[in-house]
């Protein structure tokens, strides 16, 4: 088959006569092989399959954790294939090298990249299948294919009356050859893209039929729980295993890497046995610090090390010397948990020569490494079945919960479903890192002339590389896993990508300032960390946009107008800023006791500005309204965009109002939603979203709603009270 459009597709006829297409997505490895009629095996980056029975299957190579890939990516195919999205059945992709991003060589869902990377190839797949079906229909009728059309899953004769369903043409279509460019539908002919508001997973999720990891049931399945040390770094000295083993239903009690596991025939029997378990811990190497210790260490590091230069323009020191005034501020953000609604869980069935996993994971190929690490198997012996995720937010990029389930199944030789309690999920998370920001600006006659930003804190790659590095080289023997992880850290920025988790957003500072100095002081107190929704943009957004607000007030200027004049060369930033201000009626009087704050931030290629209207009622902060404008390029599903910006705003407000994981002597103090609080339903503000329409390439929306809402709320509280808050969470009595 000859195709000129980047060789996106391979086509084959399956043993059932189905039409199979595989797409090599941008950012994914090239296809090595296609469908094998002899064995029925297939190997592809993503598949579109049409069968003689009328089924249309799309194998989704991204996970669905609420962000809308299930619906959005299916819509791209449906648009070009001329079928309703709901007529396409979606299945989650298995682990295969073709799904990996070549930058990381990992099969991951994150970074708000799903729509952007799939935008063209999925449309090409649908258009190619449509064209081949039309060619097959024209051959049957012996007419010019250029005069035939496709509509609602049928090929229509040039007379506009006769038609034949796709199902009757798939075998013939699979033999067709497309030569030349594959035309995509122009925007003027779109029926679904930019218009569809359906969520294809809504019915399943509303009726409880969607399969989450925690729903998995297998024949002969048993249940596991793990008691982990209160202090990170502790090891097991001993435990009363015989006493626990004698309890009803308990199958085994044994030490694993992170503590002591209990396996029982029923979940609540495992929990009851856990309550009777007594573990003696060796805490000689355990963490014993507090949050105060962390920030003391950060300040010492900042004094000792000015940090690595990440962006330097002009001469900031000279700008300071010439300045009429120099303004400085310091900002703190605490550790944050992910608090996914579905706690960590995984089911693993070790069968001796193979293992199978059912898990809500954002990184299925890392799940294979997790099982291999805990058993005598190689990664190729492990099959991972990805389920729906009850929230991810970056937490499920780490596979510790799969490791524990694998260790338990390997020990007892049965399928084990291991579930974390909410308390375990909160106290043994890998957290959003605490960060310190030191800001300095030079000003002459109200004009910003210099910008300095020193970011102090750890990098996530240092923690993530443990399983990520072996997953890049699954052929490597397990004794090399530790070495691969160390090499991955040492080669950061050389053989492996530069870790920008601490600096992203800060180095993209958009305001027109002649002298810029942005630095990162890398220091790590040893508390486990990982990706958290919007990652570095979340803490850098708070520091940058709060400081910009401070500069506006120091200059005696309106915060909106102050930003506006510095964005003259940034039309997309300016567009969302203006739209959000108009949406919020910026400048108009508010009822007494209310104020507005504004902020904007570009993250993951998406521009978002937000205005928060807030007040204080009954000694508590009350957010009344969030007015948001978003530019994410061409939009596939407007309702999903609104949902994600709204969800991101609520997620960010939760962090701004309540988010704080507190360590005392190395022990996490929070345990459940009573002391690690979420925004409750009665607290949810009105969120209004204005979507910019343009022809720019599409970008993601799963995370960009988070960064600006936090500083916008802080700025509103300053406008209300005249008191500036430079640490999170925000309080009503600052």
In short:
With 734 residues, the chain is α+β, with helices and mostly antiparallel strands.
Topology (SSEs and partners):
Layout: E1 9-13, E2 19-23, E3 47-50, E4 56-60, H1 69-81, E5 88-92, H2 114-141, E6 149-151, E7 154-156, E8 163-165, H3 170-173, H4 202-207, E9 222-228, E10 235-239, H5 241-245, E11 250-256, E12 259-264, H6 267-276, E13 279-282, H7 291-304, E14 308-313, H8 316-322, E15 325-333, E16 345-350, E17 355-359, H9 364-374, E18 382-386, H10 400-412, E19 415-419, H11 422-427, E20 435-444, E21 447-457, H12 461-472, H13 481-490, E22 515-522, H14 535-554, H15 559-565, H16 571-583, E23 594-603, E24 606-617, E25 620-631, H17 638-657, E26 663-664, E27 667-668, E28 686-691, H18 709-721
Helix pairs in contact: 1-2, 9-10, 9-12, 12-13, 14-18, 17-18
Report on the architecture of this protein.
This protein has 734 residues and is an alpha+beta fold. It has 3 domains: 184 residues, Aldehyde Oxidoreductase, domain 4, CATH 3.30.365; 148 residues, Aldehyde Oxidoreductase, domain 4 (2-Layer Sandwich), CATH 3.30.365.10; 271 residues, Aldehyde Oxidoreductase, domain 4, CATH 3.30.365.10. 29% of the residues lie in helices and 23% in strands. The chain has 18 helices and 28 strands. The strands form 7 sheets. A 7-stranded mixed beta sheet has the order 11-12-9-19-16-17-18, sandwiched between helices. A 5-stranded mixed beta sheet has the order 1-2-3-4-5. The chain has a 5-stranded mixed beta sheet with strand order 14-22-21-20-15. α1 runs parallel beside α2 and α12 packs across α13. The chain starts with 8 loop residues before the first strand and ends in a 13-residue tail after the last helix.
């Amino acid at each position: 088959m000859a195709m000129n459009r980047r060789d996106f597709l391979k086509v084959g006829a399956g043993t059932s006569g189905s039409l199979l297409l595989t797409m090599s997505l941008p950012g994914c490895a090239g296809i090595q092989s296609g469908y094998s009629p002899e064995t029925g095996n297939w190997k592809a980056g993503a598949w579109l399959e049409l069968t003689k029975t009328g089924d249309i299957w799309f194998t989704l190579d991204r996970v669905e954790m609420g962000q809308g890939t299930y619906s959005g990516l299916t819509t791209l195919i449906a648009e070009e294939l001329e079928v309703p999205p709901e007529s396409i059945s979606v299945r989650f992709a298995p682990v295969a090298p073709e799904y990996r991003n070549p930058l990381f060589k990992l099969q991951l869902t994150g970074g708000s990249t799903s729509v952007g990377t799939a935008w063209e190839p999925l449309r090409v797949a649908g258009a190619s299948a449509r064209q081949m079906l039309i060619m097959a229909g024209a051959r049957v009728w012996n007419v010019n294919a250029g005069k035939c059309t496709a509509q609602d899953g049928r090929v229509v004769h040039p007379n506009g009356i006769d038609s034949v369903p796709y199902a009757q043409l798939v075998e013939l279509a699979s033999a067709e050859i497309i030569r030349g460019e594959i035309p995509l539908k122009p925007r003027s002919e779109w029926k679904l893209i930019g218009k569809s508001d359906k969520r294809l997973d809504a019915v399943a999720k509303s009726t409880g039929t969607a399969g989450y990891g925690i729903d998995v049931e297998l024949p002969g399945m048993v249940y596991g729980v793990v008691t982990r040390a209160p202090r990170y770094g502790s090891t097991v000295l001993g435990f009363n295993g015989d006493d626990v083993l004698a309890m009803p239903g308990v199958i085994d009690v044994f030490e694993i890497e992170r503590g002591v596991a209990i396996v029982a025939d029923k979940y609540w029997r495992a929990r009851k046995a856990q309550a009777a378990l007594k573990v003696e811990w060796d805490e000689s190497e355990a963490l014993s610090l507090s949050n105060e210790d962390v920030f003391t260490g950060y300040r010492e590091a900042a004094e000792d090390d000015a940090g690595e230069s990440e962006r330097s323009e002009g001469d900031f020191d000279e700008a300071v010397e010439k300045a009429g005034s120099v303004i400085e501020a310091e900002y703190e953000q605490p550790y944050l948990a992910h608090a996914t609604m579905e706690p960590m869980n995984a089911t693993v069935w070790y069968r001796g020569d193979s293992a199978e996993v059912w898990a809500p994971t954002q990184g299925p190929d890392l799940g294979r490494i997790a099982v291999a690490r805990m058993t005598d198997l190689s990664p190729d012996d492990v099959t991972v079945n990805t389920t729906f995720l009850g929230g991810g937010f970056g937490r499920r990029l780490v596979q510790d919960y799969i490791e524990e389930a694998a260790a338990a199944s390997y020990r007892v030789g049965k399928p084990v479903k291991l579930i974390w309690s909410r308390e375990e999920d909160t106290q043994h998370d890998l957290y959003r890192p605490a960060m310190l920001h030191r800001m300095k600006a030079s000003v002459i006659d109200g004009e910003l002339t210099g910008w300095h930003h020193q970011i102090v804190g750890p990098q996530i790659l240092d923690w993530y590389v443990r399983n990520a590095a072996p997953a890049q080289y699954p052929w490597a023997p397990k004794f090399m896993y530790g070495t691969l992880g160390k090499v991955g850290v040492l080669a950061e920025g050389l053989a492996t990508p530069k870790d920008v988790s601490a600096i992203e957003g800060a180095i993209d500072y958009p305001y027109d300032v002649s002298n810029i100095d942005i630095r990162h002081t890398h220091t790590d107190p040893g508390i486990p960390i990982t990706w958290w929704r919007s990652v570095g943009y979340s803490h850098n957004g708070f520091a940058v946009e709060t400081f910009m607000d401070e500069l506006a007030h120091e200059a005696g200027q309106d915060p909106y107008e102050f930003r506006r004049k510095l964005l003259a060369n940034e039309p997309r930033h300016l567009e969302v800023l203006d739209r959000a201000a108009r949406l919020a009626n910026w400048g108009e009087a508010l009822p007494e006791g209310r104020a507005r704050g504004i902020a904007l931030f570009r993250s993951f290629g998406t521009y978002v500005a937000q205005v928060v209207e807030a007040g204080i009622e009954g000694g508590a902060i009350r957010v009344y309204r969030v007015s948001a404008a978003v530019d994410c390029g061409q939009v596939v599903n407007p309702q999903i965009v609104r949902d994600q910006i709204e969800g991101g705003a609520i997620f960010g407000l939760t962090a701004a109002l309540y988010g704080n994981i507190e360590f005392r002597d190395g022990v996490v103090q929070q345990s459940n939603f009573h002391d690690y609080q979420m925004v409750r339903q009665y607290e949810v503000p009105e969120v209004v979203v204005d979507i910019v329409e343009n022809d720019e390439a599409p970008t993601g929306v799963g995370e960009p709603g988070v960064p600006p809402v936090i500083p916008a709320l802080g700025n509103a509280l300053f406008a209300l009270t005249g008191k500036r808050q430079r640490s999170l969470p925000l309080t009503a009595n600052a």
